[in-house]
């Protein structure tokens, strides 16, 4: 592989005009596609195989035109202090608002609060339920504006009015902190390279890669049903790895220049050595992201595949566009250790010959491996303690900031009708195979009334054919509580008994039941997913390092860092530690997909640092250095770059903490903390300590396995063997050693 990438790097260096033109053309093509593509339609949220999804599908069949997945809104009214919603004047305002709401072309139905008994017992709060023909993502802006205008008219008339439900679903915004993250990355690159030009290349190529990836996602959003969160996460991961991959190749190029190589040859060698590490690091990230498809949640699969595509683009750009840009830069890119004149180049170092920080740190770890190992493991173990109390759920209006109308509507409904009113359960009774459907409907309602934590059970509402009915159940506790989850399971257990007695099937659905089913499905998929991703990457790393213990140590270190990162997420988003600093207005359960998403992404990123850092150690070891000395040599050449890459990745991820989307905010924080733990505790402390203790055993591989495995030559041995066979001009093709 090193030989092939060496040729590719030199070709890109020589044919830089052609390479640059190709990437500019791809960026333009993707941009035009995004601009001319139809707007994204509905972002369906289907969970195949769950009871809640089966009930939704059944409702679509038995209640044609019901729009079971259509957007909903609850317009909540509160009377002025001392007044009641049953007062004549207030009734007139509400009925005028209902009339105004019904005039919308996308409105399916509006329930009058007074006809539907939607007034609280004390008379202070009432609500009107609005049902739309299309989902919240398909709802036209004009329909949302009409909803807001109707509420404002009622406010102007003297009532307190708030709007809940998914009809006001908005596209998430990342905020200015994303720009701050990129600015921090730029500063780190300048410090690392000592050159504005060299620092600009990783930023430029990463932005081009993300531009192509996100524009492609936008162009395909309507056809493939991709949501706005998909492009945000793809840009988050693509930007981070794009900067890092380019950083590693530019850094290796400068190191090759420092050894006296010609620029074209240095570009080829950088692509052949660091580029090989980029390919395998990128493969681990792609495996982890595409592996999300095993969960069988379409939305999660699309997010993973889209992000994986952006990572693949970042790898290709690092291998081709970076060498091309280096060709354009010429002598303006200095060898390693030299700075541009603008940043202090040409000055005499104060302490010539002094070992760099990476060398000094690695020497310290090699001298005290046991102490460093214990300190690192205990520290991560302490950070992981909060993960033991992890509670999973999906966000509802109760997790929105208190400044939003959705949250205020949620609070008003809780105040007037009880906390469970915000999470009604819909029980669907399928009596098609029952001899007495009406008896079955009545029995289901009676059985549910006898359960704990039930406030209200509405009479069954059968369909036109009379073979199916819906029953609404109002719990006594809030939607995200464990008590409500227990109630859902209790209804389902009762349903099994009813089925055996009446042949009628009982299904529980609604947003609350759907959230519970999603959480369970994600929990069940976590261990199989972990086994698949870690297993495939383990095999890949055996090929890269030609060792059994090094990949095993890498996987165990990853488990430490991801568990500690989950502990930090629980501490902030569930317990509320530092919530003010993170702008977390409402604590609660951690999002259900957070653990599995973190496992996938963090594993791929963790292997990045493992490959880049340990490859240098392996390179030194196979060239005759003692194991402990190889560890020091690896840090001498790789620690500064890996440190810069980790800081950049943390800065980019931290930039998404300012997002208005709770999921994006949580993922940005979780990934930033995970990189901190993995790069600086696991890879910089635990890894050298373990390798130092293992000595030569770290690089042991059974002879039979050594013969079977392909030689991918990440260290670039083939380049050294072939160096003497090239003619002086460097144009002759390499012959494999």
Strand-helix topology:
Blueprint: H1 2-14, H2 16-36, H3 51-62, E1 72-78, H4 88-102, E2 107-111, E3 125-132, H5 141-156, E4 160-164, H6 177-193, H7 196-224, H8 228-258, H9 263-290, H10 298-329, H11 357-367, H12 369-384, E5 392-393, H13 405-417, E6 425-430, H14 437-449, E7 454-457, E8 461-462, E9 468-475, H15 482-502, E10 505-509, H16 511-545, H17 549-574, E11 590-591, H18 594-622, H19 627-654, H20 662-694, H21 703-708, H22 717-722
Parallel strand pairs: 5-11
Antiparallel strand pairs: 1-3, 1-4, 2-3, 6-9, 6-10, 7-9, 8-9
Helix pairs in contact: 1-2, 1-9, 1-10, 2-7, 2-10, 4-5, 6-7, 6-19, 7-8, 7-10, 8-9, 8-10, 8-19, 9-10, 9-16, 9-18, 11-19, 12-17, 12-20, 14-15, 16-17, 16-18, 17-18, 17-20, 18-19, 18-20, 19-20
